[in-house]
DNA sequence: CTTGAAAAGAACTGCCT
DNA sequence: AGGCAGTTCTTTTCAAG
């Protein structure tokens, strides 16, 4: 499959900004017909560049108002495999992301809770009980901003 | 607006798992007609719980293979407003997320680059040049896992 | 690549229980 | 609320220039 050309990038910029646009509207924005736009979108999908749609759930509107980022260092002595840790952490409902990272920490977790009291419960009963837990560092999220990113 | 009931939660669980499903298919999964499902989805959208669809771009497939998380502490002396910092950091194309946090750092950034050499360029010329930059800590992402989260 | 069109499917509306 | 039926819009595919 050929790499995306400038027209493809223009299409990606449009759909990234407005995922609810029809192919005809995207075509109008980049100066292509509906059919041609569809063919390009189809190619981008098949190339794995457009990896599918997602529905953004507003967890705050559902009562989960607290988001905490945790940096986790596995205990040096503990002979816990990364797979075991990942399996255990993935079983905690409040954990929304598990990033395996290189640096001061081994994992970065994104955790949600209804409020601080709820977070304390999750932290004490679930997070601290994870196999191989070493150091933990926490950052409470105040606000977030998503940016379009490169392209 | 009334809070979501059990049926709403069932619908949210279904669409969260598969955002590409038609309202008719969602209805089948929860035992409702197409129209009833659509009306509930519409209500959830208007309540802000379903906050809109997004197209997932696979940046790796586009050649951005490196993701780095940065923890940033603003310099104590610098009299830089948070707004100034946020404006400047938001202007860097490679920055995909800016999270204002409480804890050891003031901000957590998610940055993408084509490769490590590209990241070094962004880091030296853009990140280190941000107004008010104090300490920085970096974590290179090895792998990530998104989880459904609570509900 | 374009236009035009047809068929299928999904989204939306109104009416009735 | 929920179901049914119908309308409208989009997607998807095709033929022809």
Task: Summarize this structure briefly.
The structure is a homodimer of 151-residue chains. Chain A has helices at residues 6-17, 23-30, 34-46, 82-90, 116-127; strands at residues 50-57, 66-74, 95-103, 107-113, 133-146. The first copy, chain A, folds into two domains: 6-46, Arc Repressor Mutant, subunit A; 66-140, Alpha-Beta Plaits (2-Layer Sandwich).
The oligomerization state is homodimer
Order of helices and strands of chain A: HHHEEHEEHE
User: What is the CA-CA span between the terminal residues of chain A?
Assistant: 19 Å
Strand content of chain A: 25-35%
Gyration radius of chain A, to the nearest Å? 21 Å
Helix count of chain A, per DSSP? 5
Average pLDDT figure of chain A: 95
Under the CATH scheme, which architecture of the largest domain in chain A would be assigned? 2-Layer Sandwich
Largest sheet of chain A: 4 strands, antiparallel
The secondary-structure class of chain A comes to alpha+beta
**Could you name the CATH class of the largest domain in chain A?**
Alpha Beta
Adjacency order of strands in the biggest sheet of chain A? 3-4-2-5
Care to describe what's here?
2 copies of one chain form a homodimer. Chain A has 151 residues and is of the alpha+beta class. Chain A folds into 2 domains: 6-46, Arc Repressor Mutant, subunit A, CATH 1.10.10; 66-140, Alpha-Beta Plaits (2-Layer Sandwich), CATH 3.30.70.920. Chain A contains 5 helices and 5 strands. Chain A has a 4-stranded antiparallel sheet with strand order 3-4-2-5. In chain A, helix 1 (6-17) crosses helix 2 and helix 2 (23-30) packs across helix 3. The radius of gyration of chain A is 21 Å and the shape is elongated. At the A-B interface, helix 1, strand 1, strand 3 and strand 5 of A face helix 1, strand 1, strand 3 and strand 5 of B. Strand 5 of chain A pairs antiparallel with strand 3 of chain B, so a sheet runs across the interface. Chain B binds a DNA duplex (17 and 17 nucleotides) through helix 3.
